[in-house]
Amino acid sequence: MAGMSGKTSPRVAVLMGGFSAEREVSLVSGRECAAALRVAGYEVIEVDCGLDIAMRLVEISPDVVFNALHGRWGEDGCVQGMLEWLRIPYTHSGVLASALAMDKARAKEAYISVGLPVVASVLAGRDAVSAGHVMPPPYVVKPNNEGSSFGVYIVREGANAPRLAETMPEVVMVEAYAPGRELTVTVMGDRALCVTDIITSGWYDYDAKYSVGGSKHLLPADIPVEISEACLDFALRAHRVLGCRGVSRTDFRWDATGGLAGLVLLETNTQPGMTPTSLSPEQAGYCGITFPQLCDWMIKDASCNR
Fold first, then answer.
1. pTM, whole model, 2 decimals?
2. Quick one: pLDDT at residue 3?
């Protein structure tokens, strides 16, 4: 990384908070990563991002940025572009991969281009979705560019069209409901780590992801070898076709009654949750990589030119 040679304690700015719907999640990730980086020997400055973030970074003059932002502006290419302009190396994916992965419709086009399995979906206006079914139920309605299961509606067979909240974007994604188990795979560089089976009492929504006891994580997942190998392969291919770097996490649904044909890729998260008990650090821990070691690896992998 540029600017770090000869320094015994590189200065790291951990970006967190921000303005997205995932602000609180980001604050938790950022604080945990900052603590881990201090254990790893770095000088760490925690930065709750506001409109003055560029000026703050010029003042701090960090050697590298650890991007712990989630949601819009933090993982959609916006902050990445600013860091490229400032020539500050940063963790996770670059501008194009971040923007592409955040746009669910365009990410699906990329998946399809390399033969990855996805469910049928359409982009539709919010008013049209509220007025009537735009595809036969069951289906899922969600923002095309948010994460952490914000604003997700599940429309079951026999149900009326959903009344979407005014806070939903003007255009939303409507996709066929994929039944089965929720599986996920973390990719670290060029390595797919393992498969986690996410066990919940219902949909893996925001509360299931972040509330105490909201879900259980079984790793490695108790699934057939064929399905496990496919998940690892698909996650690595998704990481590559999107142009990701560093750490990403790809989510799947698997309907056991369909065998391999029952496995579909849902989406890739270029800024996965980063607390010691989050899915990606859990998988790293299973592979013998401690949380401080994972954060240290991400700092060493940081870049502003790829």
1. 0.90
2. 42
